[in-house]
Amino acid sequence: MLENAIQALRRGDHAAAAEAAEAILKNEPGDVDALQVQGLARMGLGDADGARASLEQALARDPGRGDLHMALASLSMASGQLDAALAAASAAVEADPNHLPAYVALAHMALARGEIDEASRLVNLAELVSAEHPLTLLARGNLAQAKGEADQALRLLTQAVEKLPEDPTALSSLGLLHLQSGRNAFAEQTLRRALQADGQSRRIRWALVTALRRQGHLEEALGEVDTLCEGRRDPWAIAQRASLALELGRVDEAVAGYRDLLLSAQLNPRLLEAVLTGFAQHQRAGAACVLIEELLAARSDSDLLWRVRMGMAAQLGDDPGEIVDRWILACPESAEVQQHQAMRFEAAGELERAEAAADKALDKDAELDGAQLVKIRALLRSDPARAGERAATLLESRTNPMLRRELWRWRGLAADRSEDGAAAVEAWSAMAREPVPAALPPALDDPGSDFALASGGEAGVQPRLLWGLPGSRVMQVVELLRANDAVTLVDDRFGAGPRPDGFNTGRPELGPVDGDLPRWIAGVNDYGLDPAQVVDWMPHWNRAIDAGLPGARLLAVVRDPRDLLLNWWVFGSVQQYAFPGAQSAAQWLAAVLTPLAERLESRADTTLVLRLDEANEADARDALSGFIGIDPDALGAMPDTDGGRGGHPARFPAGHWRRYEGELGDVFASLAPLAQRLGF
């Protein structure tokens, strides 16, 4: 009778095994072997509580049997009770020091914890029991994989599978190794065999889904995920099913799946982020917006959803103000929406309303950094000392480098407003030290020789270049030219994909500055533009560019070098150059302005140094139009780019550097000769 139960267990007929064991136990209630078979059969049927009761009853009658302890360990592992599994496997070794499955199980548990040394010790003990046993080979193979010894792991796990061709643990271990090594087809084949042996293993099926997705077998992967969704509600499986539907172009199906998932329980920010990432990867912003709007219809009080909807506005061309209005109607007491109102009013120049909204937001949540910055800028208008104190207080608790840069900037500006030069320099120096990713100033070219007179270029083409120094007022010229139809301002060198024409300084991934006029013309033509109509906005200009375009006309927007330094330091640059410190910045400015001064002296007819601080608007427009060869009447009014956030200027006025002669005298003195040479 017991043999019948064991045979049923071996062929996977757990119901028959349980029935046979129960028949034995009716006559012999204390039969330990029958209790063991009953426990294993119940485990196979998914009756974890019943299995545990049978095995514990068997152990109570014969606590010295290692196989009973090990069966209980397997049950605990299957149930995710790792501490109980560890205790039971350890008890199996104590009961039977030669119980190989226990050593193997303990080794695998050690690997799961990342304890390589402990796993090695246990594998060595398993080898003492039986070095060539397939379970030992399995443990050695998994240990080798954990150590990064892929070839050794493959050899050992292959041997284990040859000896245990239907063992799900051996097969899944080999399949996962194939998957980790990128052998996706082999992984698929092996994992399918593992599932034939253990069709209930979700871990193996998820690995198979990964193998199928990597091979582009999306329909098959979807079928496996459908299996994972059967019989239980698994949010991760539902999310993956929707993701696969999205990859297959079934947008409505994907949206329905995500909607069901996100509406069924408390909103999970990480899950929502994963969903939105999936839509973004497949360029389905519109579908993502539809989903968010449906979620908002059901959960209009969710700041998280409104925040996401706000983030979509720019990409979809929506009016952020309209979204804020809807948000306020739905969540009038939300601190976060009041923060958005504050920033919105500030951007519109409604400064009193901005401060009131910021106060309302901060009364509810003092951790809202956007509202804090609006409040600091408001205080700076009326009480610079309090603005500086508020920034200093926030610096004690804030850790985000970008936020800290802003706080240091405004603390320094508060000191500047109070005419405390030492405190301002201290604050701005701290701002420059904050570890925020930024480009460094481009490398300087070799000094070279004096500028030579150049020809007019190829086929009459004379490139027109615009260069604005860090800290200059170049954006006034940029905006003026952008609004003009007589020329085309080309600004691709400030983006991620500039023309690879050999003139991209500071972009080592695009190679050295080694371009020439034909390459420059070809690059412009590739954009469908006429080189004669183009003004090429350069992040940087140097002798190497001049040598490559010897007939070019150069328009350089400058200020007094000492004002350039101070404005670059405090307000940054359109090039996003990191400020390297006052002394280093002075050296760099001197090095890049010297070739400009030399060019102006030797080739004044093709060089215009535009000093917007000194020229009135009419003179500046006349000089600019004459230099680039267009009718002055074609240019509009010089745009005002001075305005910054909170009603504060975005740059210092000309000569502001003099306020800091006491703190930066040596630095400014090093730039004085060059300032004089450039006419300041």
From TrEMBL:
Signal peptide: none annotated. Pfam families: TPR_16. InterPro entries: TPR-like_helical_dom_sf, TPR_rpt. SMART domains: TPR. Gene3D superfamilies: Tetratricopeptide repeat domain (1.25.40.10). PANTHER family: CELL DIVISION CYCLE 16,23,27 (PTHR12558), CELL DIVISION CYCLE PROTEIN 27 HOMOLOG (PTHR12558:SF13). This is Tetratricopeptide repeat protein.
